[in-house]
Write a structure and sequence with these properties.
Distance between the termini: 68 Å
Shape: elongated
Structural class: mainly beta
Order of helices and strands: EEEEEEEEEEEEEEEEEEEEEEEHH
Oligomer: single chain
Largest sheet: 10 strands, mixed
Radius of gyration: 30 Å
Number of helices: 2
């Protein structure tokens, strides 16, 4: 950059340079204002101190096939619960290309992506042959893609200790997917879920979640441990929130690798330059500064991606720690023969159900209250049997 003669040291003049960058073509009009996805964290009621509580995440998929996604869940109040995690070692491999050698020793290198896919739009055709093209973002209209197999000189393998999240894919939409993992970035107070239906060599090919699938079946189930909240505590709920403002942790991908439900905002990026060497009225050298005073200003108009919340719906979940007591089927706040009678009435005479239902599952069978729970409660009350379960999921 050389500043022209109109820029003088004595009377600095701010020169505005508007650079308009068409980064992405508009989203197709057929998608406008139509729902594409809905991501919902299911509400859960559980008991104080409950272990392995299931947090279900649901997906309504309206238009595109989903073959991969990244979802980051955060907690509004980590004092109520934390996602269940285990410490594990994860191997991270990076590839590097040497750009300066000193004999056989590399003294400077750059990070290399071994397999790099670029997308191109043709701007000049000769018949069916493209003679000139320009690179574009994968979510725009493109004519062809190019996969580069880049050369690298060495690779570095890091072994890191991470908090690996516990999850359950049984009966979920990602059951059978080739890569499912979850890690906590904050010691159990959040969980980052990354899932891929297919991994190379894509044989057999898993179709992913097809359009028309709605949230009757969980997308994935995450396990959490609940703190032993005393009955006197007034704060008994925690909001479980999908983080969608950070696109590095929120993405639902089509088979062609493009992200679903992304829109772009126009932003102005202002750059300030301060001349460090003048030759008369011309600047021969300059430096980029963060704010004025400056000798020249450049304003770049660009597009910033974000989740389009008008077509992608984000629904938080609520986990509530009940003050109920396991075995207290009739809600009397103690366990007695009245609870036995309540369970008999419910199981055999069409009486009301325990509220919440898990307080009647005293034998930890995982199902609804049954004759087994009646016998278990009688044994506890009169024969010195074991105590009723401590929550809806028992260790």
């Amino acid at each position: 950059m050389i500043f022209n003669g109109s820029l003088r040291r004595e009377i600095p003049t701010i020169a505005f340079v508007i650079v308009v960058s068409l980064v992405l073509l508009a989203i197709p009009s057929s998608y406008a204002q139509q729902p594409e996805l809905s991501i919902t964290v299911g509400d859960t009621t559980t008991a104080p101190g409950a272990q392995n509580t299931v947090i279900s995440v649901y997906l309504d998929n309206y238009q595109d096939t989903v073959v991969a996604f990244n979802l980051w869940l955060k907690l509004s109040n980590p004092e109520i619960m934390e996602f269940k995690t285990d410490i594990d070692s994860v191997i991270d491999t990076t590839h590097w290309g040497c750009i300066e050698w000193d004999g056989e020793v590399c003294v400077d290198s750059i990070f290399v992506i071994p397999f790099d896919t670029s997308y191109w739009s043709c701007i000049e055709w000769e018949g069916e042959v493209c003679v000139d093209s320009t690179p574009v973002f994968p979510s725009s209209d493109w004519d062809f893609m190019h996969v580069d197999i880049n050369e690298w000189d060495f690779r570095h393998i890091d072994t890191n200790e991470v908090n690996v999240g516990n999850y359950d894919t049984t009966g979920t939409l990602v059951s059978g997917w080739e890569n499912v993992n979850a890690v906590s970035l904050g010691n159990g107070y959040d969980i980052n879920i990354a899932c891929f239906a297919n991994m190379p060599p894509y044989d057999p090919y898993i179709p992913g979640v097809l359009p028309g699938v709605h949230g009757d079946i969980p997308l994935i189930k995450i396990l959490a441990d609940v703190e032993d909240i005393p009955d006197s505590a007034t704060l008994r709920s925690v909001i479980i929130m999908p983080e969608y403002l950070s696109l590095s942790h929120f993405s639902f991908s089509r088979p062609n690798g493009t992200s679903i439900g992304i829109t772009y905002d126009t932003i102005l990026d202002t750059n300030y330059f301060l001349c460090t060497q003048w030759s008369g009225d011309s600047c021969m050298n300059w430096e980029h500064v963060s704010m004025p005073p400056a000798d020249s200003v450049e304003i770049v108009e660009a597009l910033r991606p974000r989740v389009d919340t008008e077509t992608v719906f984000i629904n938080n979940g609520l986990l509530t720690v009940s003050g109920a007591i396991c075995g207290d089927a009739d809600g009397s706040e103690n366990v007695s023969i009245g609870d036995v009678n309540f369970l008999v009435d419910y199981c055999f005479l069409g009486g009301p159900a325990p509220d919440p239902l898990w307080v009647g599952d005293v034998d930890c069978s995982g199902g609804g209250p049954s004759i087994g729970d009646v016998n278990f409660l009688l044994s506890y009350l009169f024969l010195g049997g074991p105590e009723p379960c401590s929550g809806p999921e028992c260790d």
